[in-house]
Amino acid sequence: MSIMDHNGGSVIAMLGKDCVAIAADMRLGNQALGISNNFQRVFSVTDRIYVGLPGLATDVATLHERFRYRVNMYTIKEGREIEPETFAHLVSSTLYEHRFGPYFIEPVMAGISKTPTGKIKPFIAATDLIGCLNFAKDFVVAGTASTKLYGVAEGLWEPDLEPEDLFETISQTLLNAVDRDAFSGWGAVVHIITKDKVITRTLKGRMD
């Protein structure tokens, strides 16, 4: 049993057409023992950036606070909001600093970045537990159900999905994948990030 699987949980982020989605299950467990069905793994960094933190629950709380502090310091020093690409490198450097005693977390990031010309660009990325970045053009996954998420997402994802279609795709992907994983599930939360707003929806899942 890996320490990464101790508390369970899975996160997925997907690209759409001028939008991006990130979703996570709600289960917190002690291996096969269920503890809570409303555990938060996805956090808002800014209005346009969300980060999902699957892994050890204590490190989820620690890293969330550490990222919040560093983003606030960046905003104060730079006098502007952090961009998703910059935040991804901030996450990577924070994890790499602790590579000899790592946090047992594999962050997944999703956001909308603004180009110098004023256009918007959806952005997703993920890292391993020592901060190696993985940029993707379709989807990124992490957590105990990651192998199942890959399989379902490969079959369902299509390029240039509209926000509602993206919501349906990521929801079906997550719910079907966690049904096949004993350490994930018990409902899910989905965030759809567009240039104008963020839509958050809670899904009901199997509770067995």
UniProtKB/TrEMBL annotation:
<dbReference type="InterPro" id="IPR016050">
    <property type="entry name" value="Proteasome_bsu_CS"/>
</dbReference>
<dbReference type="InterPro" id="IPR033811">
    <property type="entry name" value="Proteasome_beta_3"/>
</dbReference>
<dbReference type="InterPro" id="IPR023333">
    <property type="entry name" value="Proteasome_suB-type"/>
</dbReference>
<dbReference type="InterPro" id="IPR029055">
    <property type="entry name" value="Ntn_hydrolases_N"/>
</dbReference>
<comment type="subunit">
    <text>Component of the proteasome complex.</text>
</comment>
<dbReference type="Pfam" id="PF00227">
    <property type="entry name" value="Proteasome"/>
</dbReference>
<dbReference type="GO" id="GO:0005634">
    <property type="term" value="C:nucleus"/>
</dbReference>
<keyword id="KW-0647">Proteasome</keyword>
<dbReference type="GO" id="GO:0043161">
    <property type="term" value="P:proteasome-mediated ubiquitin-dependent protein catabolic process"/>
</dbReference>
<dbReference type="GO" id="GO:0019774">
    <property type="term" value="C:proteasome core complex, beta-subunit complex"/>
</dbReference>
<comment type="function">
    <text>Component of the proteasome, a multicatalytic proteinase complex which is characterized by its ability to cleave peptides with Arg, Phe, Tyr, Leu, and Glu adjacent to the leaving group at neutral or slightly basic pH. The proteasome has an ATP-dependent proteolytic activity.</text>
</comment>
<keyword id="KW-0539">Nucleus</keyword>
<keyword id="KW-0963">Cytoplasm</keyword>
<comment type="similarity">
    <text>Belongs to the peptidase T1B family.</text>
</comment>
<comment type="subunit">
    <text>The 26S proteasome consists of a 20S proteasome core and two 19S regulatory subunits. The 20S proteasome core is composed of 28 subunits that are arranged in four stacked rings, resulting in a barrel-shaped structure. The two end rings are each formed by seven alpha subunits, and the two central rings are each formed by seven beta subunits. The catalytic chamber with the active sites is on the inside of the barrel.</text>
</comment>
<protein>
    <recommendedName>
        <fullName>Proteasome subunit beta</fullName>
    </recommendedName>
</protein>
<dbReference type="InterPro" id="IPR001353">
    <property type="entry name" value="Proteasome_sua/b"/>
</dbReference>
<dbReference type="GO" id="GO:0005737">
    <property type="term" value="C:cytoplasm"/>
</dbReference>
